[in-house]
Amino acid sequence: MSGSLTIVGLGPGEAQWLTPAAQAAIAASSDLVGYGPYLDRIPAREDQTKHASDNRVEIARAEQALRLAADGKTVAVVSGGDPGVFAMAAAVFEALEAGDPAWLALPIAVEPGITAMLAAAARAGAPLGGDFCAISLSHNLKPWEVVTVRLEAALAADFVICLYNPISKARPWQLGAALELARRRRAPGTPVIFARAIGRTDESLRVLSLSESIAVASSADMATLVMIGASSTRMIAREGKSPIVYTPRSVTKSPCATSQGRT
Ligand code: SAH
User: Fold this and answer.
1) Residue 71 gets which letter from DSSP?
2) Which pLDDT score, from 0 to 100, does residue 261 have?
3) Which of 164, 173, 228, 171 is nearest to 196 (CA)?
4) Which one of 67, 137, 160, 181 has the largest count of C-beta atoms within 10 Å of its C-beta?
5) With the CA atoms of 228, 226, 82 and 145 taken in that order, what torsion angle do they form, in degrees rounded to the nearest 10?
6) pLDDT, tens digit, 9 for 90 and up, residues 69-112
7) What is the C-alpha to C-alpha distance for residues 256 and 191, in angstroms, rounded to an integer?
8) 167 lines ligand 1 (CB under 6 A)
């Protein structure tokens, strides 16, 4: 078996945010595996086969990629953003652990990509300058109760919170519920960022206050990354331009003092 498998991050959007290493891994592959819209971002080549699949069949897609590699193909599994952040790399390793022991001999590598929260943070200023965390609001893969326990803990610890998968047609209410939880712990003027399709031609960045964000929660969609500021996150207003959002690196207040002050 002379095949190999690389799990490649495409970055958040256009090709300029694809790393040269990720590009080289794609160029070197005979077979590309991934969710259709991600594969569509890669120009077709006659000597490469694309295996497109639905977004929901991650483990099946991972097994397919491992089987192709075991058959001697040079396989690239592609993911948007970074493949290790709420994406295909974990699915591949889950399939590897549970699958054919012969697959363990395959060369497997992960090529990182720019994850959505880093792209969004760069557009907004420096909101991740202090401690932060990332939570996926999708409860396809975990109970909603796990999401709320983690959100409560992150709010109590005064992290900047990045919300991936904030909303979808099948999950219309979770973002509103998450922002309501935030409202109980953070001041109404706390900056909240709705960063949509960052790095693509139709990108948009909205900087709101926490109370405004609750009113417009349903305007977010699957291509939106939501960021809730910590108590120290600040906005610099600019005439005719969107404000800069940043979180200073130094923290002077204990999070316990912050949460006790508000509950
Ligand atoms: N692996 C991806 C995340 C997959 S989860 C990454 O590292 O970015 C999918 C979620 O990521 C979306 O629902 C959205 O919240 C976020 N996302 C992905 N691309 C984005 C982009 N270009 N702009 C804003 N958010 C994005």
Assistant:
1) T
2) 45
3) 164
4) 160
5) 80
6) 999 999 999 999 999 999 999 999 999 999 999 999 999 999 99
7) 20
8) no
Share of the chain above pLDDT 70, in %: 97
Tokens of 127: 């909101």
d(C-alpha 226, C-alpha 193), whole Å: 6
Report how far ligand 1's centroid is from the alpha carbon of 134 (Å).
Answer: 11
Find where tokens 């130094």 sit.
250
Residue 262: is its pLDDT beyond 90? Answer: no
DSSP letter assigned to residue 187: -
Q: What's phi and psi for 28, nearest 5 deg?
A: -85, -5
Indicate if ligand 1 lies below 6 Å from the C-beta of 89.
Answer: no
State whether the beta carbon of 174 lies less than 6 angstroms from ligand 1. no
Alpha helices in the chain (DSSP H): 20-27, 36-40, 58-70, 88-98, 116-124, 144-156, 174-185, 210-215, 255-262
pLDDT at residue 55 above 80?
A: no
Query: How many Å lie between the centroid of ligand 1 and the Cα of residue 114?
Result: 10
Burial class (CB in 10 A: 0-12, 13-18, 19+), 182: buried
Report which ligand 1 atom has the smallest distance to the Cα of 199.
22
pLDDT given for residue 58 in this prediction? 87
Q: Are 108 and 92 in contact (CB under 8 A)?
A: yes
Task: Kindly report, residue by residue over 113-141, the tens digit of the pLDDT.
Answer: 999 999 999 999 999 999 999 999 997 88
Q: How far apart are the first and last CA of the chain?
A: 61
